[in-house]
Amino acid sequence: MRITNLLEIKSVTCTKQERCLFESLSFSLEAGQIMQIEGPNGAGKTSLLRIISGFARPDEGEIHFSGQSISDNYDEFAAQLLFIGHKTGVNGQLTAYENVCHWLRVHGCHVDKRAYDLLSLLGLVGLEDVPVRTLSAGQQRRVALVRLWLNNAKLWILDEPFTALDKKGVKQLQTRFAEHLAQGGAILLTTHQDLTTHFTALKTLVLEYQF
Amino acid sequence: MWKWLHPYAKAERAYQLCNTLMPYFAVVTVVCLVVGWVWGLAYAPADYQQKDSYRIIFIHVPSAILSMGAYSSMAIAAVIALVWQIRNAELAVIAIAPVGAAMTAIALITGAAWGKPMWGAWWVWDARLTSELILLFLYLGVLSLYHAFEDKKSAGRAACILAVVGVINLPIIHFSVEWWNTLHQGATITKFDTSAIDSSMLWPLLINIAAFAGFVGVVTLIRLKNEILQCERHRPWVRELVGRGE
Amino acid sequence: MQFESLNEFLAMGGYGFYVWLSFGSCAAILLALFFSSLRDGSKLRHEVRAQMKREERIKKAKQQEQV
Amino acid sequence: MTAQHSYWQLFTSVYSKDVTLAFRQRSEIVNPLLFFLIVITLFPLAIGPEPALLKRIAPGIIWVAALLSTMLGLDKLFRDDYNDGSLEQLIASPYPLSLSVLAKVFAHWTITGLPMVLMAPMFALLMNLDSQALGATVLTLLIGTPLLSFIGAIGAALTVGLQKGGILMSLLVLPLYIPVLIFATSAIDTSSMSLAYGGQLAILGAMLAVACVCAPIAISSALKVSVS
What secondary structure letter does DSSP report for B50? Predict the structure, then answer.
């Protein structure tokens, strides 16, 4: 049975530095849906994603995940959440493989040989044991994006996942999105590019810049 | 009690509560301050050992008591703010901190001015003065942490956490300083033996304590009102209030 | 009254400097805190009023544009 | 996979990451130690080399130097993780943040505190301490430095989001270090008079136990504030 309304945003308000970013914003996301958040710079896309991920608190309103408020039991929500922000959480001093392994252990996933294979699948052959800081911006992002293949989270929250990726990378990523949606997951992402693949369950949310 | 208290989590109600409470505190402050100072300075008898210099006690002791009292009420507000996530409690923490810091500063200055004729030095590493000095550092820490943040919402919560950490440490610091003091100086002359105090001196002292408490109350309320206005400035009720010229 | 004359009162039995220093600095700190708190409040109200007027002007300008 | 097993996995993973990183950039381990050594060298130069005087003030100097060199590493404790986004990943992990924080504090202690404890006999010799006081110095550093790491981490967590948090952090943290300083130096003092100093050590131990339980909670809530 499918759980409907995986994620529910209930009249969320956020003000930053005396400026109201959005007021009484409500929407919901079902399993199998992908939502693209659009809007000009400074409209509050990142702030919204950070509120939904539970890093920031909304001024008003609540976020519900599978019918439960996320602030009530954050660790349970976190087990179902995959967040990749502007800052990807990849350490420049460690190698790509070490980074992936560390992430897996911290998130309670099993570490196996699959991580190594995935790095080569994402075009990082021969770069697995090089410190990440020596890689290019796009390659560094791929190191973070490997997580998309290695987690069992239901909800993905991705802030500008396509930044610095080449066309092939973007395509690979969207194929993975489709797989995740087919397995009953949900995706929330911001991007300035349009998605090239056609998703039937695509919703868009436009945030306006408010004064 | 919870049902009665809960409406005050709303900013507008809290603001009104401040307004209703303020006159009482103001009257207590003005009356007690005038009576206490005149009585303390002119009518209380001179101490047979310390002569007239002991009159400093009428402001030193109240400010010292209130500096601790303000810190504990700040910490209580901080706990409420963190546990129940009530924004007004956070604002109260920020409102009390400068008042408490001022009380601590008064206690330090008067302590030094009293120490000079009594011990012959402006500053003596006496246990009580040292604790007061550390308390001042704790207050300044909370204040500078609050002002270092650009986002005032995070600033408030950070200040609350620091206040709670401080209040857990305060008894340990106090105890360790007392202990350090006895270790290094032997039993020093205690400035004032409160048990032996005569009622002709006790009454003005109590009145002064009430005056200082009232003052802390009044200024905290004024500052709390400011903080509430500051954070609710875009709300219609603030606009209506300011429009009425209040 | 413990003191015979004003001079005696001011001298405080030889401790006048210390006593008046304490009371003076105490009064100064209390007054400074009190008035700075009041001033903060009136400044804030002033700012809110200015903001309201600014918004009204913007509103008016928009209305005129439409006309 | 049992829950207990994965808590352990989280702890070791966070711990080993920080320690590995420190070993890759040796300066992180070496610099606080050098600082410690230089501060201790400065005192005899400033106040004169009489052995009796040095012996008298040695506990204070060693401990003040220890406080200051612990502060050096603290600013870096959460800074890198904050800047590269690892902190967000730790928060968004299914495990409680306080556990990861505990691992990070232990890592900090391994990097800065432990080398100081190991080097303490040498410093004690420089300051003319006798063997009794030397034992006390090592013991107080062993119990006291983790305490410094715990308390300091609270300050570091509160200021990690600020551009110039370093100085502010020392302002916040140093007053909280006072009890540690008092009990540790007095333990060394007492021991050099050939008296029992178990009481002071017990108090330090009790404070460490309390910090072990309470500090991770404070640190993790401070980190959540800094990240938001």
Answer: T
Contact A167, A137 (CB under 8 A): no
Percentage helix, strand, coil, to 5, in chain B? 85, 0, 15
Contact: B59, C26; criterion CB under 8 Å: yes
Domain with residues A1-80+155-211, CATH architecture: 3-Layer(aba) Sandwich (3.40)
Structural contact between residues D109 and D151, judged by C-beta atoms closer than 8 angstroms: no
User: Could you give the ipTM of this predicted complex?
Assistant: 0.88
Say whether D171 and B141 touch across the interface (CB within 8 A). yes
Show the CA angle centred on residue A23, arms to residues B18 and A161, nearest 5°.
Answer: 130
Residue B82 lies in a domain: yes
Q: Which residue from A56, A57, A85 is facing D85, i.e. has the nearest CB?
A: A85
Interatomic CA distance for residues B146 and B155, integer angstroms: 5
Number of domains in chain C: 1
To the nearest 10 degrees (0 to 180), the angle between helices D131-159 and D51-84 is: 30
Residues 41-70 on D with a CB inside 8 Å of B are none
pTM score of the predicted model:
0.89
Would you say residue C1 lies in a domain? no
Taking alpha carbons only, the member of D78, D88, D91, D86 closest to residue D162 is: D78
Read off the pLDDT of residues A45-73 as tens digits, 9 standing for 90 and up.
888 999 999 888 888 888 888 888 888 88
How many other β-carbons are positioned within 10 Å of the β-carbon of residue B127? 20
